[in-house]
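Entry: PilZ domain-containing protein
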Amino acid sequence: MFAAQYEPAERERRRRGSRAPAGVVARVDPGDEQVLGPKTLCRVADITVHGCKLETYTALSRGAAIWLTLPGGGIVAADVIWADDFNAGCVFLDPLRQALVDRLAKLHR
């Protein structure tokens, strides 16, 4: 028989703000169509002023630089910090205005 004691690893919280559910349709432009494909629609699952979670129809790669067109928010530059299948977490190069995040969250309700 094997027995061991362990302590759960403490994970440093990397998110800088609380997520707000959004559920809005946006457009993602991977910038380099030869690498990641053409512009496509996506769904912003949740959002903060610093980043968002995307549900996409085209797989994105970790480390990719993208342009995200948000409804009423214009085009936002972001980096993909994690990706699996058709979900991706992005960090915005410049933080969004809180008013835009609030407006997108309100569309979800």
